[in-house]
Predict the structure.
Amino acid sequence: MDSGETRLFKGYRIQHNNVMGPYKGGMRYHEQVSLDELKALATQMTWKCALLGVPFGGGKGGIKFNPHDHSHDELRRITRRFTHALGSNIGPAHDIPAPDMGTNSQTMVWMMDTYINTGPTYEKNDQRAVVTGKTINSGGSEGREMATGQGVVHCIKEWAREARFDLEGATAIIQGFGNVGSNAALLLSKLGVSTIATGDHSGYLRNDEGFNAHKLQDYVRVNGSIDGYPRGEKISRAEFFETKADLFVPAALENQVGEEEAMKLDVRLIAEGANGPINPRGAAVLADRGIPVIPDILANSGGVTVSYYEWVQNRNSEHWDAEEVQRRLLHMMRRAYQRTMFYAAEKKVDPRIAAYALALDSLATSYKERGIFP
Ligand code: GLU
């Protein structure tokens, strides 16, 4: 620590499945990180990649601590130490971490630098693809930072087109104003959707006129949370869930919407920016109430999809422009969205079951084709 004291942290990396390609998934820095949480999240990565047709498997990792309690230098040392401890358990053709809650492009650059500096000198440049979500300067892709929010908004647009719903003038409530929530708010505002309530670990705010997503994003970058943001009225968590709006984007932790919250929600559509934000009881209530949900492994898959583009660019020593990344992302997400909704309609199941079924089906096909050996 900066004080000279030594502290011990608990870190994990879960490798769930690699039948479709190298293990892939984020690294989470959060106080609630646990083995079971990461096992669930790694499993979801397997399904997410399979659904999208991204040639990766599923992994997830993290360290159980609150990054907000640490200085820049401490975060660097914690990250480097952990990466070094992971050693050859990660690698560009084996297991590829990425940002998640509490980590960002700087964290990924530290991981990359630590990893490549412990391998042979002549391989350094080949090894940059060991992590994705890096800064552009250090080998990241255009569009990666916005990608998860962008994917959420692509799904919302697809839904609106099919439901003949005009997004111009619509309203949204967004839980979580980190990378996913804030970029979703920003991109929604460009479509004429105003975010009228939001919240994070520090509390909830409402602004009936709609928040300026740019300003709130800048404020959170400087202050670490929405706490103290002057242009909004403080509301309770219950009031947040009761706020009438057209769209709800949960973009914070898992298990945020249970029975109680699902009863309160007064929205037309939910697009899951977070992984697992609705628990099964909450999902049952929403189904009874007829509120459609675009499931996490589809709605938030823009992040891992652009991670895949970053990995491809690194391996080919290419740099695609932002338009190229956008074009490919839109194409892949639209295809996954259409396939999921078509399957749901055909088999008369909800979109979550459809997404799981499609993902499991492609995994099962791969296992069948490969057979059992030895
Ligand atoms: N952490 C993100 C997710 O949950 C991105 C993972 C990645 O890019 O590998 O999908």
Remarks:
- Residues 24-26, 98, 100, 132-133, 275, 300, 303-304, 307 surround glutamic acid (CB under 6 Å).
- The chain has a mean pLDDT of 97.
